[in-house]
TrEMBL record:
Belongs to the protein kinase superfamily. TKL Ser/Thr protein kinase family. TGFB receptor subfamily. GO terms for molecular function: ATP binding; metal ion binding; transmembrane receptor protein serine/threonine kinase activity. Its EC number is 2.7.11.30. This is Serine/threonine-protein kinase receptor. The keyword Transmembrane applies.
Length: 519
């Protein structure tokens, strides 16, 4: 494969040098797959980067479906334009390349066709072979060795506990040897999270520079654990007297951390109904590497928790639904231009991944499974991973495996289906005249608490069932409209479902009507 790439480089370099002044790079997906597509030339523009990515993943066919449990190295090459980075700093993904990893590595460079190099991965650790038994020793010698080992072990345990206690104390103390105020990149010296976020929207619009992100991360004081999941833990932290949320990933989830940080730093992604990203950093705590993702903090927690503990008014219901729809619509839309934004699909939309803000509106969180659409090449940028969305919220085409993975609209339609189920959860908690339904998850009366794919496939695809609509909703205009919208979101025919933009406009009109009615 390297020989082919070198030959292509020798043939194409003279022509690419004449075609423009921008940086020329090799571009291909699954470059090392036998019989794969030969690399093409892409233009990274002035100040861009050539990127070569090596990911260890399950062997897949041309449709992206696993064909065996065997993991192979998958190499991709692409261009990254300057506006996708951090001003004059290298992009966050280039920092990964400074260390050789087991699962993922990146090589970035700034010379024509320099990304023909394949980043190296560490070999997967193998189980140690059994050590052959040694010859027997006299009983006295054995006892002496055992006592010496026990004494050393006891001393090591005591030392470890002392070290751990001091380490925990230092971890909860803010670092004082670095300061955002003295950072040369922060000319106006912002002193609050609001000012930092406003500052981050200038320039490339893709977030704070990497150096500033690391400075902030090292000034955060962790306070308490507020959530746990398969990826790790979420902490409430303090930065200069303000609360922040710190999502700490397990070290084995480095690809999820990397992907979520990369998606959050997409140019022009920031929106009032998308969880505000502050920083990402990897911190060595002495025993393992902690992967931090720092975002805005909201006391009301997730929509799931909020609906469990309280009911909502008609206006409150519409605000929750409309603001969530605004966030989904912003993800789905593509913004064209030099500072544009690609269309993004969430892929794990549910009430636990939507947060409730202090003003009663919502913002969408957890973009670890999100996919982006490259409209120029008409390609879906999807992370190779075994992790899938929440089965209860999966659209029928995902459950029966008929979704076209190469068609980006398919992912957007699956998001709309899941959003319809979230609308159902919200509407049940709308209290009118003291009458409301208790909180339940969608399909609570049809499948167990942790349903399998087969159980969800039977209910949603074979029996074509959907959550029940209470009769009382037909007597209230707002609930009647919400019910109509949710039904049009969960059609079995994905192409017949509403778009996120249509949902947003319908709910905006409904909110305006209700607010006028109550004046």
């Amino acid at each position: 494969m390297d020989t082919i790439i070198c030959l292509i480089a020798v043939i194409i370099i003279p022509f690419t040098l004449l075609s423009g002044e921008g940086l020329k790079c090799l571009e291909c997906e699954y470059c090392n797959r036998p019989g794969g597509v030969e690399p093409k030339i892409c233009d990274a523009g002035e100040g861009g980067f050539c990127v070569s990515v090596n990911v260890r993943d399950k062997e897949k066919d041309k449709n992206g479906l696993p064909i065996s449990d065997k993991k192979i190295e998958v190499i991709s090459r692409r261009c990254k334009k300057r506006e996708e980075g951090f001003l004059a700093q290298k992009p966050l993904f280039c920092e990964v390349g400074k260390q050789v990893l087991h699962e993922h590595n990146v090589f970035c460079c700034q010379e024509d066709l320099c990304n023909s190099r394949d980043p190296k991965l560490l070999p997967i650790p193998k189980a140690k072979e059994d050590v052959p038994k040694s010859k027997s020793f006299p009983t006295g010698t054995v006892v002496g060795i055992i006592l010496a080992v026990l004494a050393i072990a006891a001393m090591a345990i005591v030392a470890f506990f002392i070290w751990s206690r001091r380490r925990r104390e230092s971890l909860h103390e803010p670092v004082t040897d670095v300061s955002v105020d003295t950072n040369p990149l922060m000319g106006s010296q912002p002193s609050s999270l609001k000012e930092l976020c406003e500052w981050s929207q200038s320039g490339s619009g893709s977030g704070l520079p990497l150096l500033v992100q690391r400075t902030i991360a090292r000034q955060i004081c962790l306070i308490e654990v507020i959530g746990k999941g398969r990826y790790g833990e979420v902490w409430r932290g303090h930065w200069r007297g303000e609360n922040v949320a710190v999502k700490i990933f397990h070290s084995r989830e480095e690809r999820s951390w990397f992907r979520e940080a990369e998606i959050y730093q997409t140019v022009m992604l920031r929106h009032e109904n998308i969880l505000g990203f502050i920083a990402a950093d990897n911190k060595d705590n002495g025993t393992w590497t902690q992967l931090w993702l720092i975002t805005d903090f909201y006391e009301k927690s997730s929509l799931f928790d909020y609906l469990n503990r309280t009911t909502v008014t008609v206006v409150g219901m519409i605000k929750l639904a409309h603001s969530s729809a605004c966030g989904m619509a912003h993800l789905h839309i593509e913004i064209l231009g030099a500072q544009g934004k690609p269309a993004i699909a969430h892929r794990d939309l549910k009430s636990k991944n939507i947060l409730v803000k202090n003003d009663g509106t919502c913002c969408i969180a957890d973009l670890g499974l999100a996919v982006r659409h490259d409209s120029r090449l008409d390609k879906v940028d999807i992370l190779p991973t075994d992790r899938v969305g929440t089965k209860r919220y999966m659209a029928p085409e995902l459950l029966d495996e008929t979704l076209n993975m190469e068609h980006f609209e398919s992912f957007k339609r699956a998001d709309v289906y899941a959003f319809g189920l979230v609308l159902w959860e919200i509407a049940r908690r709308c209290s009118i005249g003291g009458i409301f339904e208790e909180y339940q998850l969608p399909y609570h009366d049809m499948v167990p608490s942790d349903p399998s794919l087969e159980e969800m496939r039977r209910v949603a695809c074979v029996e074509k069932q959907r959550p029940a609509i209470p009769n009382r909703w037909q007597n209230v205009e707002a609930l009647r409209v919400i019910a109509r919208v949710m039904k049009e979101c969960w059609y079995a025919n994905a192409a017949a479902r509403l778009t996120a933009l249509r949902i947003r406009k319908t709910l905006a009109s409904l909110l305006e009507q209700e607010e006028v009615r109550r004046v």
